[in-house]
Known about the structure:
- By secondary structure, the chain is of the alpha/beta class.
- Helix content is 36%, strand content 30%.
- The protein has helices at 54-72, 106-116, 165-177, 188-196, 199-204, 236-247, 251-261, 289-314, 336-344, 360-363, 369-380, 387-392, 395-402, and strands at 9-15, 19-27, 33-42, 46-47, 50-51, 78-83, 89-98, 125-137, 140-143, 153-164, 181-187, 206-211, 216-222, 225-232, 273-276, 285-288, 324-327, 348-350, 356-357.
- Self-interacts. Interacts with FtsZ.
- Cell division protein that is involved in the assembly of the Z ring. May serve as a membrane anchor for the Z ring.
Amino acid sequence: MARRSEKNLVVGLDIGTSKVAALVGEIRPDDTIEVIGVGTHPSHGLKKGVVVDIESTVQSIQRAVEEAELMAGCEIHSVHAGIGGSHIRSRNSDGVTAIKEHEVNQGDVDRVIDAARAVAIPADQKILHILPQEFIIDDQDGIREPIGMCGVRLEARVHMVTGAVSAAQNVVKCIRRCGLEVDDLVIGQLSSSLAVLKEDEKELGVCTVDIGGGTTDLAVFTDGAIRHIAVIPIAGDQVTNDIAVALRTPTQHAEAIKIQHGCALSSRGGQENIEVPSIGERPPRQLSRQTLAEVIEPRYEELLNLLQNELRRSGFEELIAGGVVLTGGSAKMEGIVELAEEVFHMPVRLGLPQSVTGMEDTIADPVYAAGVGLLIYAKQHRFAGTAEHQSAGVWGRLRNWLSGSF
Length: 406
């Protein structure tokens, strides 16, 4: 096995409800990421993004990591892992501090971030990310990088993301059982957005929607910063279940039918015949693709309406001129972009992972959006010391509240 310099490697581990994906990236001399290994394995130990079976999750992680190691020709020792589920919460917060030397330095930024995070959160929740939105110096707002600027008062506006302690503990436990360490836990909304959004979209205002197997993750960006996140507990698995019930076919066959023949618009279903395996000893039946689309469309329409309601409730619906970007494995459904445009009444596009090179034929797929985003996040945070790393990096804090858990 060829050995690669481990200091230039970053590893993303996307632990989803339907699949586990491990991606290995090598940071090139020009500071780009080249994907050199990908491993995937079906996930059987999670429900709606949360670990419910430790052993099954460990086995899925192990298989995916082994496949990625073999392809990349390296040994994986630590990962940046994704975390999701309906337990994820977020809120906006402010912090204020005095500028000690009348010129902002790193210490001032660290103090104002600490001030912003000093808010009461439930005992069963822990901070996962503190994401700076903007800094204000002496009433001058809209500052992205305050270090070196002069003033006497520094204020920070941040987006604080918290998650359930138990959910994070279980993810870390599964990864450690595979002989790996966790460099960081990253919410799915953040990693997917890093992979599929362009900077001008974030500035103009955009909503990214990651439709997975168990949950649908939403994130809103305006003025270049994340403003709102939400989790909808409806996704691809509910569509599969609808097909299984309506067509009276086993779940595994319903999933295959959905992937091969599914369409989110009944008007585009067509009369092409599909063979549908029956339950028990009954012979298979022939149904039209139109009939299948009539089962799928209402569930996707329900999901999109829930997302639209969440956008309206958040107050950001009128501020996302860049429209909606759909990604995730369940966003590959034919017709979903057109259906989403009908529901949202704004531009919608399918988001493919970008900003990385290597294995383009494999990773140019919405399925790998979160995994590629984890690589990008890992590269951005590979050196400790910046305020963003200290505030957003979770593992330094995880060591304290997980140390006695295993």
